[in-house]
Design brief:
Blueprint (H helix, E strand, L loop, with lengths): L13 E8 L3 H7 L9 E9 L3 E9 L5 H10 L4 E6 L2 E7 L5 E3 L19 E7 L2 E5 L5 E3 H5 L1
Antiparallel strand pairs: 1-3, 1-4, 2-3, 4-5, 6-7, 7-8, 8-9
Length: 150
């Protein structure tokens, strides 16, 4: 296959999440609930990458992600790039980054946390980005990437 050939066709409008670490594309798709939407989506896995060696890519037609969705992706793919496509052109390209505070993005893994049995929105403070350590604002327990994304 020459460099000019595409594995998958371009999208007219929507979002492309690029530079996802290899093996995490399905997790990103799951976080975005792509199986429950009517948007066409494509998950490319183990694509050759100069930057990463291998990478995954997720394309979602006719959908732009919310900040909450982008924050969820940052939990598992902090090096990913987000491309917004309109009329076949990339109109916005940004590096995904984890905010300092995550509100209503994930549930607290601590079953005894008040957010799991009261109507209180979850809130986490990012203590470290690599390796990821998140502190629940309410129960004050610290969690790793694996604990909050499993």
């Amino acid at each position: 296959m020459s460099e000019k050939e595409l594995l998958v066709r371009k999208i007219e409008n929507g979002t492309v999440i690029d530079h996802i670490p290899a093996g995490f594309g399905l997790k990103v798709a799951s976080l975005l609930n792509l199986e429950k939407t009517h948007s066409t989506s494509v998950i490319l896995m183990n694509v050759e990458s100069k930057k990463l060696g291998k990478k995954d890519v997720v394309k979602v037609e006719n959908r732009e992600l919310t900040e909450k969705e982008v924050s969820k992706i940052a939990l598992i793919a902090p090096s990913a790039t987000l491309n917004i496509i309109r009329d076949w052109e990339v109109v916005e390209k940004k590096q995904i980054s984890l905010p300092e505070i995550l509100e209503e993005v994930i549930k607290c893994p601590n079953k005894n946390c008040i957010t799991n049995y009261e109507e209180i929105n979850s809130k986490f403070i990012v203590e470290e980005k690599e390796p990821l350590k998140l502190r629940c604002y309410f129960c004050e327990r610290v969690f790793t990437r694996e604990e909050v994304t499993s």
